[in-house]
Amino acid sequence: MRAVSFTLRNYVAADEDAAIELWRRTWQQHYPHLDFGERLSWWRGRWRDELVATAIIMVAEADGSLIGFVTVDPNTRYLDQIVVAPEAWGSKLAAALMAEAKRLSPSGLDLDVNADNARAIRFYEKQGFALVGEAVNRSGAPIYKMSWRP
Questions:
Q1: Can you list the alpha helix ranges (DSSP code H) found in the chain?
Q2: Which residues does residue 13 pair with via DSSP β-bridges, in sequence order?
Q3: Tell me: the pLDDT tens digits for 91-121?
């Protein structure tokens, strides 16, 4: 397990640019055949209108830089995003963000994961999530619906 020292804190508006760039960089690393730069204006709108407006967002910071975040809407139990910087993959950061998500929504969590993202699916299963359904995302790609209940 890779050692990464970080602190968790509440998201503030000044984190927006760093969070959006972290999202782009991380997704681009995982899906290099897609151009996430082309999606930035859409993502910025979604970030502001859908996530910041309704979710609790916790960020992970290391040496003054944003290296992860998780978004949870405790009213719907929906975990929309858990993002970890590629340089922190294999560390305890993802588990810490998930623990924080569970603390924020103690009655349970629901999420969607791309069906081809085996690494994320394994992580969610290790965190106690179970497959509860299948669907397609906004791009038409297959996704799994997963849930965690205490």
A1: 16-30, 40-46, 53-54, 93-104, 118-126
A2: none
A3: 999 999 999 999 999 999 999 999 998 999 9
Total domains in the fold of the chain = 1
Q: Which residue range forms the structural domain that includes residue 53?
A: 7-148
Helices (H), 31-150: 40-46, 53-54, 93-104, 118-126
Asked if residue 1 belongs to a domain, the reply is no
Q: pTM of the predicted model, to two decimals?
A: 0.89
Whether 2 is in a domain gets the answer no
Q: Which amino acid type is present at position 42?
A: W
CATH number at residue 129: 3.40.630.30
Q: Using the structure block, give the residue that is written with the tokens 């994320």.
A: 120
Q: Are strands 130-136 and 142-148 parallel, antiparallel or unpaired?
A: antiparallel
